[in-house]
Write a structure and sequence with these properties.
Helix content is 53%, strand content 2%. The protein is mainly α and 240 residues long. It has one domain. Strands 1-2 form a two-stranded antiparallel sheet.
């Protein structure tokens, strides 16, 4: 009898937890924040869920930036042999489904971020740039995509990744080729003379998410962040 009561109580608790996932956000693009309950969720604390949500938002921003860059620079996705900007973006982010086994995890992100600006670089500059940013940000999460009660995240890595991203944003906005044209088109002016700052806004969102999460982890771990900056001109990045 006692066993039946305990079993019923456990089932009720699971139903209540699963019910909490029903309050979802429906965004204007049609996407939803809905996430089904998993038994693995029982091993997660509140901060672990916060980390996962922040990581998902950061990856979404990186994907958005990649697609926007490919659309503004179609010659780059053609270099990689893709049929469209959408196909090139999907290919870059496909390794996330098996990140722990993907060669992308071992990419030297510092070199990739620098290669994108080399005058003699003949490859896909968007792939190099955004692939470098993707690997760098995943490294800041110790290449994890799930977080549990005993998982340790380093706030310093998250902070450093945000500063490195600031340097990349500056480089994207200012670097010109030998003829004075942007190496990669990003922000611009529409035919009516109105500035299009959508890249700047998306980068700002990405950086803000990283800084907020770094502050949350700093508070949880009681380990103070050492503040630093990246000299954007030299592109010597903070370590991850």
């Amino acid at each position: 009898m006692k066993h039946d009561v305990r079993l019923a109580a456990a089932c009720l608790a699971l139903l209540l937890i699963a019910g909490c996932t029903g309050q979802t956000i429906h965004r204007k693009d049609g996407s939803s924040s809905a996430r089904s309950f998993s038994m693995k969720d029982l091993a997660k604390g509140d901060v672990d869920n916060v980390v996962e949500i922040h990581q998902q938002e950061m990856l979404a921003s990186l994907r958005t930036l990649t697609l926007k860059l490919y659309r503004r620079n179609p010659a780059e996705w053609r270099k990689s042999g893709h049929a469209s900007a959408e196909d090139a973006t999907a290919a870059l982010f496909k390794p996330l489904s098996h990140w722990h086994l993907s060669p992308q995890r071992s990419l030297k992100w510092e070199n990739a971020l620098l290669d994108a600006w080399r005058a003699d670089y003949a490859g896909d500059r968007v792939k190099s740039l955004m692939g470098g940013l993707l690997t760098m940000h995943m490294a800041a999460f110790d290449h994890r995509t799930e977080f549990y009660l005993l998982t340790e995240i380093d706030a310093q890595k998250l902070y450093n990744a945000a500063r490195n991203t600031e340097a990349v944003m500056w480089k994207l906005a200012t670097t010109r080729n030998a003829t004075g044209e942007p190496v990669l088109l990003s922000n611009g002016i529409d035919p009516n003379g109105v500035p299009n700052l959508s890249f700047e806004r998306e980068f700002g969102k990405l950086i803000g998410i990283g800084d907020t999460l770094a502050r949350i982890i700093e508070d949880k771990s009681n380990r103070a962040i050492r503040f630093g900056v990246v000299n954007a001109a030299t592109m010597i990045f903070l370590p991850i």
